[in-house]
């Protein structure tokens, strides 16, 4: 699995869903003027964009392990403190921000509880620490049509259903394990209109994340069969797809 792709490639793959999701997450975490915020696992900057718009670049920190994403985020948001690093070892002092958030990141952390514990550490007492993960176990992520079709070709393929945090209970358990207080959760839904089948399908051919890996592993013949199955399901377009994420927050 890799996220060693350009920010533009990732945006075509997931940004069309992560941007509206980031808006709803920032609203739910009550991000408002005067605060300082940290975006953990920022990617090319879907949530960073929201934080900068609400707080100003000089009050926003963002961090990600991918060099290409860090470069893209720095270019897009000059003035923000964008660094390369991992959630499990954040390079910030204790209680140095008012809110810390991880949008679509927890399930890729090597140790999700340690990552959320670090987010709690850098957040002032009483500040929100929050995270979102697509409903992977319920097959309500944006990739659900692809995983359904992959299952037809490779019934034993694990997909993403077992990734950590992919259920409401699993995500809440991670936050509680990180000693956050007053943990609560909601579902956040995003609907995207895809104008053509090609616009939806092409980003899956760049090897982004588990879905990209699954497509690449099929080989040319398998990809052709997969595309045919998906075209039968989705049509030529336009079509709407709705994805649902679990969001959880707790007090530092």
Automatic annotation (TrEMBL):
Q: Which residues form the Methyltransferase type domain?
A: 39-129
Arranged from A to Z, the UniProt key words for this protein are:
Methyltransferase, Transferase, Ubiquinone
One Pfam entry name: Methyltransf_11
Checking InterPro entries in the record gives: Diverse_substrate_MTase (IPR051052), Methyltransf_11 (IPR013216), SAM-dependent_MTases_sf (IPR029063)
| Key word Membrane present | no
Which GO biological process categories is it annotated with? methylation
Q: Name one GO molecular function term.
A: S-adenosylmethionine-dependent methyltransferase activity
Segments traversing the membrane: none
User: Can the keyword Flavoprotein be found in this entry's annotation?
Assistant: no
Write out the similarity annotation: Belongs to the methyltransferase superfamily.
Extract the PANTHER family matched here: METHYLTRANSF_11 DOMAIN-CONTAINING PROTEIN, METHYLTRANSFERASE TYPE 11 DOMAIN-CONTAINING PROTEIN
What is this protein called in UniProt? Ubiquinone/menaquinone biosynthesis C-methylase UbiE
């Amino acid at each position: 699995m890799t996220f060693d792709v350009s920010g533009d490639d990732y945006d075509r793959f997931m940004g069309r869903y992560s941007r509206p999701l980031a808006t709803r997450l920032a609203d739910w975490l009550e991000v408002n003027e005067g605060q300082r915020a940290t975006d953990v696992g920022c990617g090319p900057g879907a949530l960073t964009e929201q934080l900068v718009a609400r707080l100003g670049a000089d009050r926003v920190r963002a961090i990600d392990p991918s060099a290409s994403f860090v470069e893209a985020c720095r270019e897009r948001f000059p003035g923000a403190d964008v660094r390369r690093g991992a959630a499990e070892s954040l390079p910030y002092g204790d209680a140095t921000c008012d809110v810390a958030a991880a949008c679509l990141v927890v399930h890729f952390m090597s140790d999700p509880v340690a990552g959320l514990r670090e987010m709690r550490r850098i957040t002032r007492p009483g500040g929100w620490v929050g995270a979102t993960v697509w409903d992977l176990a319920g097959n309500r992520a944006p990739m659900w049509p692809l995983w359904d079709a992959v299952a037809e070709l490779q019934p034993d393929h694990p997909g993403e259903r077992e990734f950590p945090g992919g259920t409401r209970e699993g995500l809440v358990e991670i936050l509680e394990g990180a000693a956050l207080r007053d943990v609560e959760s909601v579902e956040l839904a995003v609907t995207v209109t895809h104008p053509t089948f090609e616009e939806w399908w092409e980003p899956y051919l760049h090897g982004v994340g588990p879905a990209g890996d699954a497509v690449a592993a099929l080989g040319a013949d398998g990809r052709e069969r997969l595309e045919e199955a998906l075209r039968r399901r989705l049509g030529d377009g336009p079509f709407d797809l709705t994805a649902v994420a679990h969001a959880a927050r707790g007090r530092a």
